[in-house]
Design a protein that fits this description.
The complex is a heterodimer of chains A (192) and B (407).
Chain A: E1 4-12, H1 17-30, E2 34-40, E3 49-57, E4 72-75, E5 95-99, H2 104-111, E6 119-123, H3 125-132, H4 139-149, H5 155-166, H6 172-188, E7 190-191
Parallel strand pairs in A: 1-4, 4-5, 5-6
Antiparallel strand pairs in A: 1-3, 2-3, 6-7
Helix pairs in contact in A: 1-4, 1-5, 3-4, 3-6, 4-6, 5-6
Chain B: E1 9-14, H1 16-27, E2 31-34, H2 41-52, E3 59-62, H3 66-78, E4 83-87, H4 89-94, H5 96-104, E5 110-115, H6 129-133, E6 140-143, H7 147-162, E7 170-175, E8 183-189, H8 191-198, H9 225-254, E9 261-264, E10 271-274, H10 279-292, E11 297-302, E12 304-306, H11 310-317, E13 322-327, H12 338-347, E14 355-360, H13 370-384, E15 392-394, H14 401-405
Parallel strand pairs in B: 2-3, 2-4, 4-5, 5-7, 6-7, 10-11, 10-13, 13-14, 14-15
Antiparallel strand pairs in B: 1-8, 6-12, 9-11
Helix pairs in contact in B: 1-2, 1-7, 3-5, 7-9, 10-13, 11-12
């Protein structure tokens, strides 16, 4: 096994998956780990499918190729499940975190991972983001969900790292909204 | 690695472009000529924020083309300013004639090139075709493996270019998207340490020095063109020692020393892979796997490509059984990539020269992963064992390779 964890983020342009990968890396880095976060840009147009990746490790990361076999897949837009190969290269025990109103059992079927050891979690991240941040930003609640269902990051470090990195850039209102979105994503994610 | 006099450093995570922009902010050049292009765009975007916020007092000259961006740097450097720019791909191509003017006029301009493929077909992703095309333009070239090295190279580049023995322009290269847009761990020096390291620029000559008038870029015909080119050539040759000195001195400040080449598990290796920039890290991971199986393999990563450290490379590879040189560019001459040919030529006079093959990989951002690296090393091991292996070919052409080949 490789000495690092790999995450693949699926979303559409403007949904913030590149930023989500960045925030995940910053959180892990805050916790003393070695990180990579990088996007996979295709043609640049609004709404196009976008991927972003993370590698996290306790040792310096030297590999510079795309993430092909992610143990963790986060899907910010469930309409992508039937459009792009979101399960591509994933191991039998992969972890999926999906922004959707549907139940994990339904999404498990949609993903086509019934009968595997995959763990499938869902959270209504879109709804949460509208109620907490004031606009559709599913990436923030998804980060909270990731903090709950994986050991990649924890909620406390996620929130403190975000505050430390973005308090200068965003107003206190925006920061508070993001804090609430993370917390609700953490609390409301379900499945397994 | 020296740890004496280590500067105060901040550990954080940045993309390659943010790290380059940050280095430029800490260097605080007099002039930056700018015409942004993907994937180097965010270097100028972030640097222009530092200008707008008053973090630097650089004259940011936003121009209408890369040709003009380099021209602005040339004008500024002629007037005695410390000048910088950043570009990629078609942008470097459009600077072409000005690259030769910068080096011929002996102007220590620092240019960050975020490596990207050249059109056609249009492609925004990484390969080294852009800077490899400029390899004979009289610019020093440093290739960076990581975000950290891109940052460190920018700071060292200023000193190398401005050294009295050198007085030549320098390119700091990093891989487009792979390094430029990837967040990695990095240690940043404090502003004061960077300022102390680069020092105040005191140009040897300046058009604004009215007490000592001079002409730059004048006509030099049959009687004087060649000796001037000879001087330029000698300066390029001499810059190698300066790169070594500055790399060592930088190590004293930062704890991170740099040489001309990086050797990884190379000492006792029978088989070696030569590769530039970010892919070297991927090959190192492959080497670790094979070393665990007892295979004697290693990596040579040239950091300095121009001037070409031919003696040092020949010494590092002498006695190896077989070598594969990986090029992220093709010379389009049916005889392999530029690095392959230079390495092969460097080894010609060595009695213990290894067998050598060349492989072109990763054009237009085609992914190069650990499995690709293992395949290449496997082939080189076969070559070492005396099997017949093709001298030069393409590898890892991407998932549409079969479809396109069938067209």
């Amino acid at each position: 096994m490789a000495a690092f964890e790999e995450v693949r983020w699926h979303g559409r342009a403007q949904q913030g998956v590149v930023t989500a990968a960045k925030v995940l890396a910053e959180t892990a880095l805050h916790g003393g780990r070695f990180v990579q976060a990088f996007p996979d840009f295709g043609p640049e147009r609004m709404g196009a499918p976008v991927k972003a990746y993370n590698r996290l490790s306790d040792k310096p990361i030297r590999i510079h190729s795309q993430v092909a076999e992610p143990g963790y897949v986060v899907i910010a837009d469930p309409t992508l499940i039937t459009l792009v190969p979101v399960t591509g290269g994933t191991p039998d025990d992969a972890v999926f975190v999906v922004n959707t109103v549907k139940d994990p059992d339904v999404i498990r079927k949609d993903l086509g991972v019934e009968g595997t050891n995959a763990k499938v979690y869902t959270v209504d991240a879109g709804h949460i983001s509208v109620e907490t941040i004031g606009r559709l930003m599913p990436n923030t609640p998804l980060l909270g969900a990731v903090a709950k269902v994986t050991s990649l990051i924890d909620l406390e470090t996620l929130q403190s790292s975000f505050k430390a990195n973005y308090s200068k850039k965003y107003s206190p209102k925006v920061i508070d909204g993001n804090m609430a979105a993370m917390k609700r994503g953490f609390e409301e994610v379900k499945g397994g | 690695m020296s740890t004496a006099k280590v500067a105060k450093q901040t550990a954080t995570g940045l993309t390659g472009n943010s790290a380059v922009a940050y280095a430029m902010m800490q260097i605080n050049p007099d002039v930056c000529g700018a015409y942004p292009i993907t994937p180097s765009t965010t270097v100028i975007e972030e640097f222009s924020s530092y200008v707008a916020d008053g973090r630097v007092d650089t004259g940011l000259i936003t121009v209408e083309s890369e040709h003009s961006a380099m021209s602005a740097c040339i004008g500024a450097a002629s007037a005695g300013a410390r000048a910088m720019s950043a570009t990629s791909s078609q942008g470097l191509a459009l600077m072409w004639e000005m690259l030769y003017i910068a080096s011929g006029m002996r102007l220590p301009i620092v240019l960050c090139d975020v490596n990207r493929a050249l059109s056609a077909p249009i492609n925004i992703h990484c390969d080294h075709s852009d800077t490899m095309g400029a390899r004979d333009s009289g610019w020093i070239q440093l290739y960076s493996e990581t975000v950290q090295e891109a940052y460190d190279n920018m700071i060292q580049a200023v000193r190398i270019a401005e050294d009295k023995r050198v007085q030549l322009p320098i390119m700091v290269c990093l891989d487009g998207f792979i390094t430029s847009h990837s967040i990695e761990n990095i240690e940043l020096l404090d502003d004061e340490s960077v300022q102390d390291f680069v020092g105040e620029y005191k140009p040897e000559r300046s058009l604004l020095d009215v007490d000592n008038p001079l002409t730059l870029g004048a006509t030099a015909l049959q009687d004087s063109y060649m000796p001037l080119k000879h001087q330029q050539s000698n300066a390029m040759k001499a810059s190698k020692e300066v790169v070594i000195e500055i790399g060592k001195e930088f190590g004293e400040v930062s704890g991170r020393s740099y040489g001309l080449l990086e050797e990884y598990d190379l000492d006792d290796a029978e088989v070696a892979i030569v590769v530039l920039s970010s892919s070297a890290g991927t090959v190192k991971d492959a080497v670790d796997k094979l070393r665990a199986e007892g295979k004697k393999v290693g990596v040579l990563r040239p950091r300095l490509f121009r001037p070409f450290p031919h003696k040092e490379i020949a010494k590092a590879l002498s006695g190896k059984k077989a070598v594969c040189v990986l090029d992220r560019a093709d010379s389009m001459d049916g005889f392999g990539g530029p690095l392959f040919k230079d390495i092969r030529a460097a080894l010609y006079a060595d009695d213990n020269r290894p067998k050598i093959i060349g492989r072109v990989f990763g054009l237009g951002g085609a992914d190069f992963n650990v499995d690709n690296a293992l395949d290449v090393i496997g082939e080189t091991i076969k070559l070492a064992a005396g099997e017949d292996v093709e001298l030069f070919r393409y590898i890892g052409e991407g998932q549409n390779a079969q479809t396109i080949a069938g067209c």
